[in-house]
Amino acid sequence: MLDSCKITRVAGEPGPVDPDTGLREPAPTLTVYEGRCKVQTYEAHESTPEAGDHVYTVQRYYVHIPVTAPPVEVDDIVTITAAVADPALAGRRYRVAGLLHKTAATARRLLVDEVTG
């Protein structure tokens, strides 16, 4: 695993709405894991859901982290903080969509989605 990532989890409710901007303060987050990782795609699989009048593209990937990393949960956010072989990966964000468990695992493999558009 040559890349680095940070995995965060929402740890509370969003804050109040700012009366001047009309924007809600984001919910606080907790860092679950920070360290080595690898981004992997297992096959091309994307979908283009619609919400309102907008079409999004959802691409499915794996993110591998050490098997000794703390437990991760569905809906945690993985942010790639450094990428050796492909600098374009740095800054990409993925939502954990599934947890894959197996006997004799050599890495914790997280099924993740990247939503763009």
Extract low-pLDDT stretches: none
- CATH fold-level label: Thrombin, subunit H
Average residue pLDDT = 88
Shape: globular
Q: What class would the helix/strand composition place it in?
A: mainly beta
In order across it, which strands form the biggest sheet?
1-2-6-9-8-7
Query: Any guess at the CATH architecture?
Result: Beta Barrel
Share in β-strands: over 45%
Gist of the model:
The protein has 117 residues and is mostly beta strands. 0% of the residues lie in helices and 50% in strands. It has one domain (3-14, 25-116): Thrombin, subunit H, CATH 2.40.10.
Q: In terms of topology, how is this protein built?
A:
Elements: E1 3-10, E2 29-40, E3 46-47, E4 50-51, E5 54-55, E6 57-65, E7 77-82, E8 93-100, E9 108-116
Antiparallel strand pairs: 1-2, 1-7, 2-6, 3-6, 4-5, 6-9, 7-8, 8-9
Please give a structural write-up.
The structure is a single chain. With 117 residues, the protein is mostly beta strands. The protein has no helices and 9 strands. The chain has strands at 3-10, 29-40, 46-47, 50-51, 54-55, 57-65, 77-82, 93-100, 108-116. The strands form 2 sheets. A 6-stranded antiparallel beta barrel has the order 1-2-6-9-8-7. The radius of gyration is 16 Å and the shape is globular. The mean pLDDT is 88.
